[in-house]
C-alpha cells in the first residue's frame, strides 16, 4: 500500500524529491531536541500544483500529510510518525514586490531574511522579526501566526497578511491571493488558515504587507526599578512619540546570569546586575523624526534620552545606555536574541509561551515564583518577555526529569495565567507540546467549534493530524 | 406551531419584548428603502442568557433567527420573511472601560456614538467612524466588519476587536472575551464570526481596542489635478508624518453637483467646480505633534500646509482650504457625510461598494464610465470614495427601473473590478443585495468552503438564512 503511494509520489515529484530511509536524516530532529520525526517519506514538491496532486494521492491512500518549512518551530508542530512530511522549501520565489501598493507576493518556502533583504532593496520593510529569521520560512510563520519583537508596532503575522493560497485536504486550491485592504465578500477564510498549523490545509503562497523602512532607530538598554516602572516608561514613550516603539523586551537578572554563564563573550549591560532589564527601540519612519539635528542626534534619540533622564531623576530607572552606533545597537539585540539558544542548551527544560494583560505580568511572575519552591525546591527559572505585548517566555529547569512532574509545573503556570485572564499559548502555537494545556484550559465550547470546523474541512483527519486538537 | 413558539418566547422574554402585528412597525422598513421585513415577531431579549434560550427555542421549532441592532446596514442583511427578528438593543451596557489596558468591554446593543463618548471621557478614542454612528450598534458593526473613514489608520472593525461572545446556532455560548494582544491557542474563531452577518451565530458582546485620542487635527479640502496626483499627496503626507493620515476621502464633481442640488445650504468648497476633490485629515496623538508652536499652529497643520503649498507650486493641486477652526473642520466633514442621504434620496439607485488596489482606482472609474453609456445612455453616476483604502461607493442612477437592467449594470461594475484585482464588497457586506455578485464573482472554492463551514456550525440553516450564501 505505502509502496504504491511512494511509487506514485516518485513519478509525480521525481526521485530526487521523495526522500526515504537515511536520506530523510536532516528532516528528523526537532529544533528543540524534544521530538524526532519518522516520516514515511520527506517530499519536496516544486509548486502548488504538485502539492495539490500530492495531497490528493495521500488522501486516496489515507496517509497523513504534515507540512514543514524552516523547521524552527518550538512546539513540535511539524512532527509525524509514519505520515508524509511535505517540505515547501522549493516554493521559494518572491514573485513580486510592488512598492507603490506596499505588498510582496511570496511563496511559502521563502526564508524570512530573504524577504527582509528584498523589501529593504525596495526601501521598505517586512516587519516580522525574530531570532530564527535566517531559517524560518513564510509558510511556517503564517501557519503558526508567528510573533516576535515587532508585534507591538506592526502586529503578528496575521496582521501582515492580505492574501493567501491554500491547498485543501481534498487537493482543491483555495485562491485568496488579493492585495486589498478591505474585502467583505463572505467569511474571513484567510484568518482561519493562518495559525491553524497545517491542520486545515497547506499554505502555499501569500500576499504580505510591507511598511516604510525605519530610517533611523533609537535603541537603549536600561534597568528599571520594577516592572510597573518599566510599563510607565513604555506608556510615556508611546505617548511622546505617537506609537513609534517597535520593541520593548524584558530580561530579568536570572537571564543575565545565565547569559554570562553560557556566553561570557557577550557581556552584561551594566556592572551591577539589576532585576528588571529592558531593551527598547523606537523606529523613525518619517523624515522629520529621522533627520539628524545640528548636534547630529536624531529627534527620536533625543526624545528617548530625555524620557530616560527624566525617569532616572524620578528614581524609576536605575541605569541606562543609549546605543550610539549601529554596532552598539546590534550588540544590544544579540543579548536578547540568544534567549532561545541558551534556554534549549540546558536540559531538562520546560518552556512556556504565555500572554497576559500588560498590568498582570508582574503579578503573574510574583505569584508563580512564590509557588514554585513548593512544587520543586530545586527548580530554577529563566525568562524573557515581549513585555509590550504581555508575552512572557518563562522557562523552568526542574529538579527532576520526570514527565508527570513537568506537567504539574506547567499546570501551575497555566492556573496562574488563567486566573489573571491570560493565555497558555501566545505566539509559538500549540503543536504537540501545548496540547495538554489546550485540552484542560481552552474554553470547551471553543474546542468543540474547532473540532466541528476540522471535521468539516478535513473529514479524513489527514492534515497534520493530532496537532492542536486530539 | 408558531403559536406555541410565540407563547414560549413570551414566557421567556415577557410580553413587552415579543412584538407582533402592528407593534413590529418600527422594525420593518430597511434604511435603504429597498427591503421590507415581515418577521413572525420582533424579540428584545435582555441579555446573553435570554438570547441563548431564544435560539434554542427557535431551533426546536425550526424557525430562523435574524439578529438586528441599529438597522443602518445597506445590503438588506437584517431582513426576514417569517423568521424571528432578534434585536440586541437591550444589551446596551458599556461594561467596562480599562484605560491602562486601552480596552472597552461592550455589549452588542451599544450605539457607536455612546462608545465614542465613553472613550473620550477616558481621554481615549474608539476609532470606528461613519455617518450612521448615532444609530449603528457594535453588534452590527462587528457582524458586517464595518469600515468607515478611519480604516486607513486604524483598520476595519475586525482590527479593533480583541475578544468576542457569540451565541451559536444550538444555543451554546462561545466565550472568547479576552483582552489579549497575542493568543495562538487554536483556530482564530473570533474572525470567523466577525463579518459573518449573523449567519454563523449571534454576537452578544465584545472586547474592543481603544486608541490614544487625537489631541489635534489637521484637516483640509483640496482639489487635485487628477486621482494619481491625489495619491501622490497621500503618499507624501504618510511619509512626512509617519502614517498619521486618518482619512483621505474623494468626492468627484458629480458628487458636488448633486450635493448642491439636494442641500444648497451646505455649499461647495470652491467657487470653481473641480473633478477631484479630497478631504484629508491628520490626527496628532503625540504631544510633540499637537502642541501649538509660537505662531499658534500645531506642527501637523504646518506639515499639511507645507505639503499642499509645495504641490500647488508643482501644479498637482489646484486649490486648497485648511480648516482654521473646529467648526470649519465639521463643515468639511458634513459635506462628505451627507453621501448616504443624498444617494438614497433618489430612486432608482444602484449602489455599489467596491475596493481596488490603490493604483487601480482611476483606471476602474475611467473604464466603467467609458462603458456605461453603451449600457444605459441616460444613466448618471455619483461616487464617493475612501480613496486611502481603494474603496469606492459608486452609485448609478439608471435610465429605467428594471431589475434585469440594473443587474446588467452591476455585472459590468463587477467585471471591471475583477479585471483589476478588486472586490465587489468592500465594507458593507453581502446580505441580500450582493448575493448575485457573490455567486458569480467569488472564487468557487472559497464559496464551497464557506458552505462547508456554514453547514458544520448551523446544520439546520436557521441563523440569518439566505444571507451571504444561497
Automatic annotation (TrEMBL), chains A, B:
One of its GO terms (biological process) is respiratory electron transport chain. GO terms for molecular function: catalytic activity; FAD binding. InterPro entries: FAD-bd_oxidored_4_C, FAD-bd_PCMH, FAD-bd_PCMH-like_sf, FAD-bd_PCMH_sub1, FAD-bd_PCMH_sub2, FAD-linked_Oxase-like_C, FAD-oxidored/transferase_4, Oxid_FAD_bind_N. Its cofactor is FAD. Residues 35-213 form the FAD-binding PCMH-type domain. Keywords: FAD, Flavoprotein. Belongs to the FAD-binding oxidoreductase/transferase type 4 family. PANTHER family: BLL6224 PROTEIN, D-2-HYDROXYGLUTARATE DEHYDROGENASE, MITOCHONDRIAL. This is FAD/FMN-containing dehydrogenase. It comes from Gemmobacter aquatilis. The lineage of its organism: Bacteria, Pseudomonadati, Pseudomonadota, Alphaproteobacteria, Rhodobacterales.
Amino acid at each position: 500500500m505505502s509502496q504504491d503511494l511512494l511509487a506514485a509520489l516518485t513519478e509525480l515529484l521525481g526521485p530526487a524529491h521523495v526522500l526515504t530511509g537515511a536520506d530523510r536524516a536532516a528532516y528528523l530532529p526537532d529544533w528543540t531536541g524534544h521530538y524526532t520525526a519518522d516520516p514515511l517519506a520527506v517530499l519536496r514538491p516544486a509548486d502548488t500544483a504538485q502539492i495539490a496532486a500530492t495531497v490528493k494521492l495521500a488522501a486516496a491512500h489515507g496517509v497523513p500529510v504534515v507540512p514543514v518549512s524552516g523547521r524552527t518551530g518550538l512546539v513540535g508542530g511539524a512532527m509525524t510518525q509514519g505520515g508524509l512530511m511535505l517540505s515547501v522549501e522549493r516554493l521559494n520565489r518572491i514573485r513580486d514586490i510592488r512598492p507603490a501598493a506596499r505588498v510582496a507576493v511570496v511563496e511559502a518556502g521563502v526564508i524570512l531574511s530573504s524577504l527582509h533583504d528584498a523589501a529593504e532593496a525596495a526601501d521598505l520593510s517586512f516587519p516580522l522579526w525574530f531570532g530564527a529569521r535566517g531559517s524560518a520560512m513564510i509558510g511556517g510563520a503564517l501557519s503558526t501566526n508567528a510573533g516576535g519583537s515587532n508585534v507591538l508596532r506592526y502586529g503578528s503575522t496575521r496582521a501582515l497578511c492580505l492574501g493567501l493560497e491554500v491547498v485543501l485536504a481534498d487537493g482543491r486550491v483555495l485562491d485568496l491571493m488579493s492585495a486589498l485592504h478591505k474585502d467583505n465578500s463572505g467569511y474571513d477564510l484567510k484568518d482561519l488558515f493562518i495559525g491553524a498549523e497545517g491542520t486545515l490545509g497547506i499554505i502555499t503562497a501569500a500576499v504580505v504587507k510591507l511598511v516604510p523602512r525605519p530610517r533611523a532607530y533609537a535603541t537603549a538598554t536600561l534597568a528599571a526599578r520594577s516592572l510597573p516602572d518599566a510599563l510607565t516608561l513604555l506608556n510615556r514613550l508611546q505617548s511622546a512619540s505617537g506609537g513609534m516603539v517597535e520593541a520593548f523586551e524584558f530580561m530579568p537578572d536570572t537571564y543575565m546570569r545565565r547569559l554570562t554563564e553560557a556566553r561570557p563573550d557577550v557581556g552584561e549591560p551594566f556592572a551591577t546586575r539589576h532585576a528588571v532589564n529592558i531593551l527598547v527601540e523606537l523606529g523613525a519612519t518619517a523624515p522629520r523624526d529621522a533627520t539628524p539635528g545640528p548636534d547630529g542626534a536624531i529627534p527620536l534619540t533625543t526624545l528617548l534620552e530625555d524620557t530616560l533622564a527624566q525617569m532616572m531623576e524620578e528614581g524609576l530607572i536605575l541605569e541606562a545606555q543609549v546605543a550610539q552606533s549601529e554596532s552598539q545597537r546590534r550588540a544590544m539585540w544579540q543579548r536578547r536574541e540568544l534567549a532561545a539558544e541558551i534556554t534549549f542548551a540546558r536540559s531538562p527544560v520546560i518552556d512556556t509561551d504565555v500572554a497576559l494583560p500588560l498590568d498582570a505580568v508582574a503579578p503573574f511572575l510574583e505569584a508563580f515564583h512564590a509557588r514554585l519552591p513548593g512544587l520543586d525546591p530545586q527548580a530554577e527559572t529563566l525568562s524573557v518577555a515581549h513585555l509590550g505585548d504581555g508575552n512572557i517566555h518563562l522557562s523552568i529547569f526542574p529538579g527532576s526529569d520526570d514527565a508527570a512532574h513537568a506537567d504539574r509545573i506547567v499546570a501551575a503556570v497555566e492556573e496562574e495565567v488563567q486566573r489573571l485572564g491570560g493565555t497558555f499559548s501566545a505566539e509559538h502555537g500549540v503543536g504537540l507540546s501545548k496540547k495538554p494545556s489546550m485540552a484542560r484550559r481552552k474554553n470547551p465550547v471553543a474546542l468543540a467549534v474547532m473540532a466541528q470546523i476540522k471535521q468539516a474541512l478535513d473529514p479524513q483527519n489527514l492534515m497534520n493530524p493530532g496537532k492542536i486538537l486530539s
